[in-house]
Every structure is written in C-alpha cells, then in structure tokens.
Specification:
about 180 residues; mainly alpha; two-stranded antiparallel sheet; two-stranded antiparallel ribbon
C-alpha cells in the first residue's frame, strides 16, 4: 500500500502515529502537552540582501516528526506527480529529491531543481524571478488543514488534516526553518 493510501486510510492519532513510526503517546505529548514556548527556539540569520531572517527551529522530537511527515508527503507528491507528469510535464522543480518515474524493477530517476527549471525557460523573451516576502508565514493553520481536506489528490479526514497542521504550524503559521539544521 502506498503512503498516499495509508494517509487516506488513517482515521485517528493512533493510525497517524503508526504511519510516522511514533508511539501515539509521544505524538500526543508533542502536540498537546509540550508547552508552545518549548516547541521552538528562535534565532536570526543574516539575509544576503541585508537585514535578518527569523528562523524558528523545532524541538528535536518535533523536528523528527516533521522530517518523517515531510518524507511521507514527498512520497505522496511523487506518486501524484507521476500521473500528472506523464500527461502534462513537470509541475514544480523546487525542494525536490530525485524522483523515480520508472518502476522498482527498472528505475528512471530525475533530479528536479533550479537546473531543470531553467531549461523550461531557455530562449524565452522574458523570465520573472522573485522572492515572496513572508511566504511561509502567509500559510496559516486553517489553510494547511483545509488543503489536506479539500485537495482532490489528498481528501484526508479532518482529524488527520488537523494533526498534519499541528505538526507543521506554530503560532498559526508555517515557521521558517523547521527543517534547517540546528544552529
């Protein structure tokens, strides 16, 4: 069974914790008992353009849950994109690992990144490249939760979508730096 199917079949924190390879009691503690002030450590890193970027680094146990969730969601996206890519070309190129568009028996890997994105734009008259200010913080808890409930590729139960948003969000936004190495 694929990770997408397992995620869709999850109905409770017990199912979801098992998928993350966590004990339900540990996941419950991280989400409901650990005080918010202990979940993240804030620090600043200098921006190339000047000024500072505020990074919120999660508690090591929460970071592990986020890493496992990210791996599961990346597997789901890979599965979803296989069908779209075969019909319509690549959907996105950023933050990607190598993607196997073949089979287990005969793998065909494609590493997406800035180089494959650039190929799509060769010989174009205009290319707009921009950095969105406050991009991560523009995604709040409700938006994350709602995506996993309403998106046609996921359509998760509200309880599972809530757990995902609780793992991903802090103070009602996606914190920047959750998967950055510790300082």
């Amino acid at each position: 069974m694929s990770y997408l199917e397992k995620l869709k079949n999850s109905e409770s924190i017990y199912d979801f914790a098992k998928l993350l390879d966590f004990k339900p009691s540990v996941l419950s503690y991280l989400l409901y008992k650990l005080p918010n002030k202990q979940k993240y450590t804030e620090f600043k890193i200098p921006k190339r353009s000047g000024g500072d970027r505020i990074v919120k680094a999660p508690d090591r146990r929460l970071k592990l849950a986020q890493r496992k969730l990210a791996d599961i969601l990346n597997s789901c996206v890979e599965e979803i994109e296989k069908t779209y890519t075969l019909r319509n070309g690549k959907l996105s190129h950023g933050f990607k690992k190598k993607i196997n568009f073949g089979t287990k028996e005969k793998p065909s890997y494609l590493a997406l990144g800035i180089h494959t994105n650039a190929k799509c734009h060769r010989n174009k008259r205009y290319v707009l490249n921009l950095d969105l200010a406050n991009f991560f913080s523009s995604f709040n808890f409700g938006r994350v939760r709602g995506f996993f409930i309403k998106n046609n590729d996921f359509v998760l139960s509200p309880d599972i979508a809530t757990l995902i948003a609780q793992i991903a969000c802090h103070e009602n936004e996606l914190p920047q730096g959750s998967l950055i190495n510790e300082h």
